[in-house]
Amino acid sequence: MAPVPYLLLLLLPLLRVSADELEPCQLDDEDFRCVCNFTDPEPDWSSALQCMVAVEVEIRGGGRSLEQFLKKANSDPKQYVDMVRALRLRRLTVGAAQVPSQLLVAVLHVLGYSRLKELTLEDLEVTSLLPPPPVKDPGPALSTLRIHNVSWATGGAWLSKLQQWLKPGLRVLNIAQTHPLAFSCAQLRTFPTLTTLDLSDNPGLSERGLTTALCPHKFPALQDLALRNAGMETPSGVCAALAAAGVQPHRLDLSHNSLRAAASDDPRCVWPRTLNSLNLSFAGLEQVPKGLPPKLSVLDLSCNRLNRAPRPDELPEVSNLTLDGNPLLDPGALKHQEDPMPSGVVPACARSALTVGVSGTLALLQGARGYA
């Protein structure tokens, strides 16, 4: 009989793990981060109540429709004001669900009374058209908005409609794998405080689409523009899009695009005079593209296919030039048989590219220079 209690003691940790796995929501020991994943056929939605004490909350709906919550969305949000104002919530992620637009804006309206600063909408299908906002207190005063893999029934007007449900002051806007990106510019209001616009991971955007997405004179404070894996073809084509939109970024990230040198007869574009950092890493370049800005503080050409050191006449006047990960610094890389990247990319860059994935979205986390 003696071995039985010891056996139970050994099984207790396993039993605890199994019990935890059945809970759709998990709150960490510091009551800081709460994650809910409602994948069960009949999820216990009330489990999300434990997330009310958290600062960071992530809720995923298991791909199901949230239409059942529409009735509650029609209630007067003022009855929840005191409770919402008391929340510690600062960062919220909502994902993996079909969301009626009326429910989405109802949630935004309630969050208008909260201290929420960062909102991420991910893997969502927003059904029906977005209704007009109320006259007062439409939604939260966000500093960061991320829209990842979201489809909108509203079409190209989705950003302008969503913008009306947010208080002014947005500083960071990240839109990835989201359709459409052809915004209704006439309806879009100016983003007076937006300093960072990230349109990475939209491979179908292209330079023509960029001209449409960068609605003219809507981003007057823009400093950082990220276009990783966005279907860009030449730096000069991006320059033309920036000029057409009147955008004046300080830092431009074109890494993880398949760039090619511009044709010799391409008209020379005048780059924004504010631009001082250009990231052209992981772009498959075999030579320095023509028509780069005449002067830069930072030029990142790392992890390309450069077989020789660039001549001075091929480069702009640059203070910080990065050439790491090119065959010119590791000639033996050309003969590396196990290199999973295109011929001419050194193994270190191949490993780095596999780490960040095709898109390169995590390049910032690896300290990629030229966009920080």
From TrEMBL:
GO biological process terms, semicolon-separated: cellular response to diacyl bacterial lipopeptide; cellular response to lipoteichoic acid; cellular response to triacyl bacterial lipopeptide; inflammatory response; innate immune response; positive regulation of endocytosis; positive regulation of interleukin-8 production; positive regulation of lipopolysaccharide-mediated signaling pathway
Molecular function GO labels: lipopolysaccharide binding; lipopolysaccharide immune receptor activity; lipoteichoic acid binding; molecular carrier activity
Top-rank taxon: Eukaryota
Keywords per UniProt: Cell membrane, Disulfide bond, Glycoprotein, Golgi apparatus, GPI-anchor, Immunity, Inflammatory response, Innate immunity, Leucine-rich repeat, Lipoprotein, Membrane, Repeat, Secreted, Signal
Role according to the record: Coreceptor for bacterial lipopolysaccharide. In concert with LBP, binds to monomeric lipopolysaccharide and delivers it to the LY96/TLR4 complex, thereby mediating the innate immune response to bacterial lipopolysaccharide (LPS). Acts via MyD88, TIRAP and TRAF6, leading to NF-kappa-B activation, cytokine secretion and the inflammatory response.
Compartment annotation: Cell membrane; Golgi apparatus; Membrane raft; Secreted
UniProt organism field: Camelus dromedarius (Dromedary)
Keyword Lipoprotein assigned: yes
Signal peptide (from-to): 1-19
Membrane topology note: Lipid-anchor; GPI-anchor
CC per GO annotation: external side of plasma membrane; extracellular space; Golgi apparatus; lipopolysaccharide receptor complex; membrane raft
Cited PANTHER family: MONOCYTE DIFFERENTIATION ANTIGEN CD14
Stated name of the protein: Monocyte differentiation antigen CD14
Quaternary structure (record): Belongs to the lipopolysaccharide (LPS) receptor, a multi-protein complex containing at least CD14, LY96 and TLR4. Interacts with LPAR1.
Pfam families attached to this UniProt entry: LRR_6
Record-annotated disulphide pairs: 25-36, 34-51, 185-215, 239-269
Transmembrane segments: none
